[in-house]
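Figure 3 (text version): structure tokens given as input.
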């Protein structure tokens, strides 16, 4: 399980929120948007990245990589083996998220599986052969709603978020991946804030070309840049996964509306008895209650709702959290 963490100062929280909303924002941009000096941003942010309080990475979009199968698994385990199961899943290179849920006997993980053979090996061989695993359900992610990727923990205003968004050129048409893109993506997965010089060196190209290709990869949503942080450091004490059943005709509308809510970190249409998976981060239980009552309760197409609290986040955006294993 994750170790207890100390909250950041108010300024550090806002800098961290800026990194969540715009992982490659320059220190100058962050300072201008937050109304503090660039020197203060550097002095506060650099140690947070150095000690891995903040970690920048990138996540591929399965839309651009058709061999990837995006799968959410809910795995019921023997309670005395839950930590071992979560750790084993977190060590897999194809897991994006690993969370311990509910009463401590269930793990939810999101995987990007490398084709049908990898999927079948996991579902038909690996899980059945694991004695600690009691049962599981699988849910294919049909569509991830990208608005939630702007998430900042509710610590930034709409104007501040707008000021952090990079002005990327809008492509006239969806372009094909180039031969250097795989090297760029691999480098960004390791370090989402890698300099253009480092990106160019790893891809054997120029810094100008590396910058242009990175902007295209982000603009075309080939990859999503992300910053990982233990949310407790931001004063967020309650996380939950919502398994929502929505009338089919209202799935797109409901998913898009929820993905724009400041407490929603992730929203995806899925297969299974529930057809919408939503990850919520709230300050406390009272805030979660009001989200369920006021926000979910007001949505016209929602028919059923299951709430599973997250006890421990072991892996997020493809990164194992320090101290969680």
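Below: residues designed for each position.
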């Amino acid at each position: 399980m994750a170790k207890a963490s100390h909250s950041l100062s108010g300024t550090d929280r806002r800098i961290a929120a800026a990194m969540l909303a715009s992982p490659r924002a320059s220190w100058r941009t962050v300072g201008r948007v937050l109304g503090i000096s660039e020197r203060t941003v550097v002095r506060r942010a650099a140690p947070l990245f150095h000690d891995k309080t903040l970690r920048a990475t990138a996540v591929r979009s399965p839309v651009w990589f058709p061999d990837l199968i995006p799968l959410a698994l809910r795995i019921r385990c023997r309670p005395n083996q839950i930590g071992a199961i979560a750790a084993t899943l977190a060590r897999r290179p194809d897991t994006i998220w690993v969370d311990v849920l509910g009463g401590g006997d269930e793990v939810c993980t999101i995987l990007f599986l490398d084709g049908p053979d990898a999927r079948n090996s996991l579902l038909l061989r690996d899980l059945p052969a694991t004695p600690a695993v009691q049962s599981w359900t699988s849910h294919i992610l049909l569509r991830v709603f990208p608005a939630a990727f702007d998430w900042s923990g509710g610590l930034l205003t709409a104007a501040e978020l707008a000021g952090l968004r990079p002005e990327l050129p809008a492509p006239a048409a969806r372009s094909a991946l180039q031969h250097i893109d795989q090297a760029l993506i691999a480098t960004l997965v390791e370090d989402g804030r890698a300099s253009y010089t480092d990106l160019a060196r790893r891809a054997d190209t120029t810094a100008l070309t590396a910058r242009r290709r990175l902007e295209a990869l982000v603009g075309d949503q080939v990859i999503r840049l992300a910053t990982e942080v233990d949310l407790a450091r931001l004063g967020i004490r309650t996380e939950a996964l919502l398994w929502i059943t929505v009338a089919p005709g209202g799935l797109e509308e409901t998913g898009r509306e929820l993905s724009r809510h400041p407490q929603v970190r992730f929203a995806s249409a899925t297969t299974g008895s529930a057809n919408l998976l939503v990850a919520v981060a709230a300050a406390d239980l009272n805030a979660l209650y009001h989200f369920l009552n006021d926000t979910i309760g007001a949505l016209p197409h929602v028919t059923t709702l299951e709430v599973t609290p997250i006890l421990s986040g072991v892996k997020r955006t493809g990164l194992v959290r320090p101290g969680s294993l």
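The chain has a mean pLDDT of 92.
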